[in-house]
Amino acid sequence: MSRNHKDKYESSNPRRTHTIMSTEDANSGKKSYWPELEITGSIRNLSPNIWQLTHLTALYLNDNSLQRIPSEIGRLVNLKVLDLSSNKLRSLPAELGDLIHLRELLLNQNFLRVLPYELGKLFQLQVLGLHGNPLSKEMMALYGEPSGTHKLLSYMLDNLQDIVVVALATAVECALALEIYDGLA
């Protein structure tokens, strides 16, 4: 085997072909830098080390048995593609909204009833896969319209802003109540 030879792994998806470091390169101490990572095959738990791979631009965790995605996913700020399709997810962490470079988010065939409003911050998102989830009729109606992804994300951003306004108003009311209480004491 020559020094420049690389082993190829052919993915089940013809769009993706991954080059894996040769044995010689690994033995010589060469570091790997994989822009994409694919983990499939009925996996139930993920190693916490995955969330340290901040260089990843694509993460394929589809066709597993994942029931939750930890908030640490928000560390993968360079992701452009995230595929969580065909898992057993019932909810998603709000930190997905921190992945502002995402262009493709595939959530098809899960058990999602709601989506975090923080997804409204994903301004670069072009593809959103939601089919096969028991989402509300309101969300699915928006999603099903022409430019549905954009409309749904705008709806979510509006609701996120409403939540922030309510939280700020509540904080101000609490601060005023404390001032009044301190003034009476």
TrEMBL record:
* Record has Repeat as a keyword: yes
Give a single Pfam family match. Answer: LRR_14
Organism lineage string: Eukaryota, Metazoa, Ecdysozoa, Arthropoda, Hexapoda
Organism whose genome encodes this protein: Microctonus hyperodae (Parasitoid wasp)
A GO cellular component annotation here is: cytoplasm
The UniProt record lists the Disease resistance R13L4/SHOC-2-like LRR domain at: 49-132
Question: Which InterPro entries does UniProt cross-reference here?
Answer: Leu-rich_rpt, Leu-rich_rpt_typical-subtyp, LRR_dom_sf, LRR_domain-containing, LRR_R13L4/SHOC2-like
Provide the transmembrane region boundaries.
Answer: none
Could you tell me what this protein is called?
Disease resistance R13L4/SHOC-2-like LRR domain-containing protein
Q: Per UniProt, which keywords does this protein have?
A: Leucine-rich repeat, Repeat
Instruction: Name the residue ranges with Polar residues bias.
Output: 11-29
Q: Entry's PROSITE patterns?
A: LRR
Q: Which parts of this chain are annotated as the region Disordered?
A: 1-29
